[in-house]
Specification:
Glutaconate Coenzyme A-transferase, 6 helices, 234 residues, alpha/beta, 3-oxoacid_CoA-transf_A, three-stranded antiparallel β-sheet, NagB/RpiA_transferase-like, Succinyl-CoA:3-ketoacid-CoA transferase
């Protein structure tokens, strides 16, 4: 069996990165993001990237790393409001932005991973989202045609994985990672806990190893907190 486990994030991405490619990045904001892999992409210096993600995170965090280093040419996302640097670049015409409703975005990625080139949805009909897109009536209701998304590379984060690439996610850090793992030519996963094959209960596996080509263990990742909402102790 081919060894999927690499010694670090840089080596896990060796030979996969090139200018102008489309990268799908897991996570929701800064929760469940493949931070180590994104740092390695930043260090590689690859440019003119199209990044597909829920949102570009915060300044200097997650996908925000690549925004700060001006490696992003286009962002396809459902939200970009928390990243001031991206907002400045967009308003200055330095980066492209394709907004997509969150449900439609994840379905576009799921469709791409399933080999479905496009689908119809009522979401966005009659809004700016629909500009330039085909619409069609079904049972008297108007629907909008959305294209599936399939990337050159997907980078994702998981809580636990075995050396065959089977993955388990933890709580809200699961978010978009499972669907994004299916939607690229090559998927690279960073995992907090790496175990031997057979140590994960098959019923607990969320992403089967067939989707994961390369892995790297990141045993103690820094977990950013976007907004603290806990009460002060008495």
């Amino acid at each position: 069996m081919t060894n999927k486990v690499y010694r670090d994030s840089a080596s896990a991405l060796t030979g996969l990165l090139r200018d102008g490619m489309t990268i799908i990045s897991g996570g929701f904001g800064i929760c469940g993001i493949p931070d180590s892999l994104l740092a390695a992409i930043e260090d590689s210096g690859v440019r003119d990237l199209t990044i597909v993600t829920n949102n570009p995170g915060l300044d200097g965090m997650g996908v925000g790393r690549l925004v700060n280093s001006r490696q992003v040419r286009k962002l396809i996302a459902s939200y970009a409001g928390e990243n001031a640097t991206f907002a400045k670049q967009y308003l200055a015409g330095e980066v492209e932005l394709e907004y997509c409703p969150q449900g439609s975005l994840v379905e576009r990625i799921r469709a791409g991973g399933s080999g479905i080139p496009a689908f119809y949805t009522p979401t966005g009909v009659g809004t700016q989202v629909a500009e330039g897109k085909e619409t069609r009536l079904f049972d008297g209701r108007e629907y909008l045609l959305e294209r599936g998304i399939f990337g050159d590379l997907a980078v994702i984060h998981a809580w636990k994985g075995d050396s065959e690439g089977n993955l388990v996610y933890r709580m809200t850090a699961r978010n978009f990672n499972p669907v994004m793992a299916t939607a690229a030519k090559v998927t690279v996963a960073e995992v907090e806990h790496l175990v031997e094959p057979g140590e994960i209960d098959p019923d607990h596996i969320i992403t089967p190893g067939i989707f994961v080509k390369r892995m790297v263990q990141v045993p103690d990742p820094y977990k950013h907190i976007e907004k603290r909402t806990v009460r002060q102790r008495a």
